[in-house]
TrEMBL record:
Family stated for the protein in its record: Belongs to the DMRL synthase family.
Top-level taxon in the UniProt lineage: Bacteria
Protein name (database record): 6,7-dimethyl-8-ribityllumazine synthase
Reaction catalyzed: (2S)-2-hydroxy-3-oxobutyl phosphate + 5-amino-6-(D-ribitylamino)uracil = 6,7-dimethyl-8-(1-D-ribityl)lumazine + phosphate + 2 H2O + H(+)
Organism: Flavobacterium chungbukense
Positions with a binding annotation for (2S)-2-hydroxy-3-oxobutyl phosphate: 94-95, 136
Entry function: Catalyzes the formation of 6,7-dimethyl-8-ribityllumazine by condensation of 5-amino-6-(D-ribitylamino)uracil with 3,4-dihydroxy-2-butanone 4-phosphate. This is the penultimate step in the biosynthesis of riboflavin.
Residues involved in 5-amino-6-(D-ribitylamino)uracil binding: 31, 65-67, 89-91, 122
InterPro entries the record matches: LS, LS/RS, LS/RS_sf
Stored CDD domains: Lumazine_synthase-I
């Protein structure tokens, strides 16, 4: 489904785990800052709406989207967070630089998710023009920052529950469904 067929800001709080105890890092690119500020506001407001205390949200700025990789890496290494959201806006220019920045950031953030234990959520717009970015940072298509915040909560929960299941030496729920309960994920036998 393309973004044009869904609103990025819509979420059902009944499907979102308790996030009160989670800590979130948000790394924000300063390139296209009118857009990235809108994305940050969407993410921050969604976390607050899901009852994450403001003091449990850490923000760092970096120059551009390519620096999101290093910024997220240092955030993971030095801060006690349960998930990191990286926020950027890359807009096609005259040259192929767009392709290299987008590919580099995508691969770098993927690598962090593979190499570390903390989920890193990819909130980087890769648009053909400014209007597309406006539309996805609080415009007609909603706010990708909101979507990223909800994803961050859900992934922090999965990490937490997987750790609990591992501690009990039990397999995770085979259904793959996300259990929205305060207690650990129900453990089913195969
Ligand atoms: N053109 C955009 C950039 N370019 C800058 C790079 O991200 C990077 O900061 C530079 O190459 C130095 O390493 N960054 C964006 O975030 N958005 C763009 O549209
Ligand atoms: C994504 C970019 O780096 C790009 O916006 C820079 O513009 P240009 O390709 O015209 O140098």
């Amino acid at each position: 489904m393309a973004t044009e067929n869904k609103n990025l800001s819509e979420y059902d709080k009944n499907t979102i785990p308790n996030a009160k105890d989670f800590r979130f890092g948000i790394v924000v690119s300063e390139w296209n800052d009118t857009i990235t500020e809108g994305l940050y506001n969407g993410a921050f407001d969604a976390l607050i709406d899901c009852e994450v205390p403001a003091q449990q949200i850490i923000r760092w700025n970096v120059p551009g989207s390519f620096e999101l990789i290093y910024g997220a890496k240092k955030m993971l290494q030095t801060q006690n967070v349960d998930a990191v959201i990286v926020i950027g806006c890359v807009i096609q220019g005259e040259t192929k630089h767009f392709d290299f920045v987008c590919e580099g950031v995508t691969q770098g953030i993927k690598d962090l998710n593979v190499q570390t234990d903390i989920p890193v959520i990819f909130c980087v717009l890769t648009d053909n023009n400014m209007q597309q970015s406006i539309d996805r940072s609080g415009g007609v298509h909603g706010n990708k920052g909101t979507e990223a915040a909800i994803a961050a909560i859900k992934m922090a929960y999965i990490r937490q529950q997987a750790s609990i299941a591992h501690a009990y030496n039990q397999p995770l729920l085979t259904s793959g469904a996300l259990q929205i309960e305060d207690s650990p994920i129900k453990i089913e036998n195969e």
